[in-house]
Amino acid sequence: MIFTDYVFEFSSKLEKTAVIDKREISYKEVYNDIKNIASILKYKKFSKKDSVLLVSENSCFSIQCYFGIMKNGSVCIPVNPSVSSEEIKYIADILNIKLVFAQKKYKKKIEEVLSKEVEIYTENEVYDFISSCDNNCYDNEVKAESISGNDTAVMIFTSGSTSKPKGVMLTHNNLIHNTDSIIKYLSLTEEDRVEVVLPFYYCYGTSLLHTHFRVGGSLVLNNRFMFPQTVIEDINKYKCTSFAGVPSTYQILLRMTNMKDTKFPSLRYITQAGGKLANTFIKDLKGILKSTDIYIMYGQTEATARLSYLPPHLIEEKIGSIGKGIPGTELKVLNKEGLPVKTGEIGEVVAKGKNIMKGYFNSKEETDAVLKNGYLYTGDLATVDKDEYIYIVSREKNIIKSGGNRTSPKEIEDVIVQIPQVVECAVIGVYDDILGEAVKAFVVLKDNNTNIDAKFIKSFCKERLASYKVPQHIEFLKGLPKNSSGKVLIQKLKEMEKNKSGK
């Protein structure tokens, strides 16, 4: 089944609100424009062999193009508009892109790097094309032919182990399976309305789109997270039942807005993924949202979106855990011999299920490195407790090896953010002649608080950590480098240090 047809199976003719983006837009209106996008592609003889680039911020236009490309059976390539022109050119070249849907403000950036033969359609140009067609120009009831559930529907590019991004190929079946599973454990219904600040070119963001459209719920788009107070206001203004964020999302809302002094009567649940949220912030959320379910989750683009969740009723008993596999997904922690770890031992998280990607585009070597023995090897290190609940320790590549000791940066970060004046923190290993690596912490303070200095932070850590885990170096920043999804760019911090030291 084509993923678009699955998503709109029960909602394509509904007059109810699907999206609030400055105005309310109905399902019927959204779906008609999806069919128009698909019709353009069919008219131009695009098939499942063709990939179409989508360069847009969250908007009705991006939603219509995203589902319209898949409805035609073609492969949608959602791209972060803020990536470099060189990266856009690289992706377009390896996929032999012939057509791009893009918001008008990004058209010039794309034109400068792509061949003149590549067609670029902005919002107005799409509608002009449709209105200029006669009845024979396009088929508004277009149906893709010969599309299998195992055909690629979406390709999301992530940063690779080399300088080139990797294209994660997700099939129609991958998307359907993961969507069904998320709907099940979140108990989503047509009454649910989510405020969306996560971009749709990020798998966590698209999972919100998939699930809420499938059940006939609605989305409120907020592209103004640079003004975080608007996020708090919109939850109540639009009576949202849910909200989703990565760790930095909640850290900023908790320490840079009046969230602690606000009541959220409509909020049924919130979700958090995209990295480990420090326990101190989980406790803050629990204290504020007493009648709201809090779902701590874990996932990867290579797994479509979700891999695990922690049931809300266990959040205090199992604080810090990512829970267990979502319905239909098997999640394990294996040692180097490929056997399940014992309680307290550290191993790698592996996953098996119908949500696991088809592979990386044109990269058998990298695909074979992560898809082994029927499992996805995530690269995340974790432990399990006596009840087999999983606790992420770190990414293997981020473990700090200092003086013969292996240290998880997350453990140190979790301590530093307990200081109320700290908004966020990132810890890395930096070159050291004697230890091999020394611990360095980058710290962002609330309101440029001058009462907190390096000596204070080191003293705070000494009372709570083993001596070899106490940061030898501390640097204060105005903000941590992040991608557009809000994830902290650890590699960029490492590169900054490497450039400073020359090591």
TrEMBL record:
Pfam families: AMP-binding, AMP-binding_C. Residues 411-487 form the AMP-binding enzyme C-terminal domain. Keywords: Ligase. The keyword Transit peptide does not apply. InterPro entries: AMP-bd_C, AMP-bd_C_sf, AMP-binding_CS, AMP-dep_synth/lig_dom, ANL_N_sf. Coiled coil: none annotated. Residues 15-361 form the AMP-dependent synthetase/ligase domain. Belongs to the ATP-dependent AMP-binding enzyme family. This is AMP-binding protein. It comes from Clostridium ganghwense.
